[in-house]
Structure formats: structure tokens, C-alpha cells
Specification:
With 225 residues, the chain is an alpha/beta fold. 28% of the residues lie in helices and 27% in strands. It has an eight-stranded mixed sheet, with helices on both faces. The protein has a two-stranded antiparallel sheet with strand order 2-3. Strand 9 (128-135), helix 4 and strand 10 form a beta-alpha-beta unit. Helix 1 (24-35) crosses helix 5 (190-213). The longest helix is centred in the C-terminal third of the chain and has 24 residues, at 190-213. The model has no long low-confidence stretch (mean pLDDT 92). The structure holds cytidine-5'-triphosphate. Cytidine-5'-triphosphate (CTP) binds at residues 3, 63, 82, 84-86, 88, 113, 115-117, 131-134, 146.
């Protein structure tokens, strides 16, 4: 399962709070997972992208809608890639009618959105969770903190907010982190990086399943016996 794109948090019928996520990285992950033979559900915020071949897509607008769709569809998933740039806050209330211009200063009351990937990571028998950390500075330190605070299995750290990498670019650079390890996936197209990421996550899933079933213990006798 994959989340992708931004979320839009409505202020009134014509305005919203959004962000600069294009959805390309999440769509590339969904495409790479489908190419690798997975059955893929993609929950996407508002983006202008075609659905990758073989992927089942559900479109949503806000973080709350994304959370509800994810919780409906996540049962039985083996891997969860949280690639969406989910808005951390939403306006306390979306006005029913267009807000009119008023005094020279206005305050906007915002309330926290649910943390979708943290909720998925907290599920009993839930999927292996792979988050994305979009950072403008101290990329590794912030990403490691998210890995631990959100209870994730892995996190793909990338730098945003500069040319040639991140949100609005075709390219990206990813450092993949987990408790006690890291792998620099390097710089490349979002499609190349998505394939490397899916493969690294699948390896991790196989390791976890081997540990759970005890099949990591080599049943063959040691040489010489
Ligand atoms: N995420 C989520 N739900 C949220 C916020 C984030 O599922 N409400 C997920 C993203 O999909 C991503 C990871 O959490 O996999 C990190 O997202 P990011 O925007 O980098 O971090 P935040 O938790 O929003 O922290 P901050 O804005 O302080 O950097």
C-alpha cells in the first residue's frame, strides 16, 4: 500500500492549505511495487498524474479522508509506504461560504491532523512501514527522529526545498535508514530510486518473516557433521 501527493485542507469552498508535493515519488513507488509483482493500493491526494499500470487507486483530498481510506484498505497489507506529504494541521473549521475580506490582520485557527503512518505502524500485525522524511536541513538527524517517534521500520530521508531534488523535481536523492543500519540509495530518477527502495523493503520483509517463522536458522548440519 502506498500514499502519495499532498493533502488539501479546505478553508472555504474556494481556498485551501496545500503543499508542493507533486505525487511523483509516491506514484513511482506504486509503479515499482506493481512491476515487482505486488498487488498495490495507492491512496492519492490531489495530483495530475496517470495511475500506474496494475495499481488500484483511491483519490482523496484531505488528511482525514486519506486516513480513513488507508484504514479501510490496509488490512492484510505486507508493506506500507507513506510517501504522501500529509498536512500536519487543518483549519479548525471549513467555512460553508467563501470567506470575505475583513480587517488587515486575520488569525487562522489550526488543529492537528492524525499522523497516518504512525497509526499504521501502531497496528497489531500491521505491515512493515516505510516513511519518507522531507527535510530542508539536518536531514539524517530529523529522519532518525521520525523513524523512532513514529515507530517505523524504515525511513527514506530526502532533502527538499532546493533545485534538482525533492518535491517538484523528476530526480531525488535518498538515504534509507532503519534501527541499526543505513543504505545510501544515491541520486537518480524517482523511478530508479523507487525500484531500489521497493527491493530494499522487500528484503527487510523477507528477513522479518524468516525471523518470525524461525526459518532463518539453517536446518542443514554444519560442514563436517
Ligand atoms: N505522515 C503521515 N501523517 C501525517 C504527517 C506525516 O502519515 N499527518 C507521514 C508522511 O507520509 C511521511 C512521514 O510521515 O512518511 C514523515 O512526513 P514529514 O512531512 O517529513 O514529517 P512530519 O511528521 O510532518 O514532521 P515535520 O513536518 O515536523 O517535518
Amino acid at each position: 500500500m502506498v500514499t502519495a501527493g499532498p493533502t488539501y485542507e479546505d478553508l472555504d469552498p474556494v481556498r485551501f492549505i496545500g503543499n508542493r508535493s507533486s505525487g511523483r515519488m509516491g506514484f513511482a513507488v506504486a509503479a515499482a511495487a506493481a512491476e515487482a509483482g505486488a498487488k498495490v493500493s495507492l491512496v492519492s491526494g490531489p495530483v495530475g498524474l496517470a495511475t500506474p499500470a496494475g495499481v488500484e487507486r483511491r483519490d482523496v483530498r484531505s488528511a482525514i479522508e486519506m486516513r480513513d481510506a488507508v484504514m479501510q484498505l490496509v488490512t492484510g497489507a505486507d508493506l506500507f509506504f507513506g510517501v504522501a506529504a500529509v498536512a500536519d494541521y487543518r483549519p479548525q473549521q471549513a467555512a460553508g461560504q467563501k470567506l470575505k475580506k475583513g480587517p488587515p490582520r486575520q488569525n487562522l485557527e489550526l488543529v492537528a491532523n492524525p499522523d497516518i503512518i504512525a497509526e499504521v505502524a501502531a497496528l497489531e500485525d500491521g505491515p512493515l512501514t516505510i516513511g519518507f522524511a522531507a527535510e530542508t536541513e539536518q536531514v539524517e538527524a530529523h529522519a532518525r527522529e521520525k523513524l523512532s517517534v513514529k515507530g517505523l521500520d524504515m525511513i527514506a530521508a530526502n532533502r527538499v526545498g532546493r533545485e534538482g531534488s525533492g518535491f517538484e523535481s523528476e530526480h531525488n536523492e535518498i538515504l534509507l535508514l532503519w534501527a541499526g543500519g543505513e543504505k545510501h540509495l544515491g541520486r537518480g530518477s524517482k523511478h530508479q530510486l523507487a525500484r531500489l527502495l521497493v527491493s530494499a523493503a522487500a528484503d527487510r520483509l523477507n528477513e522479518r518473516e524468516a525471523i518470525e517463522t524461525g526459518s532463518d536458522q539453517d536446518p542443514r548440519p554444519a560442514p563436517g557433521h
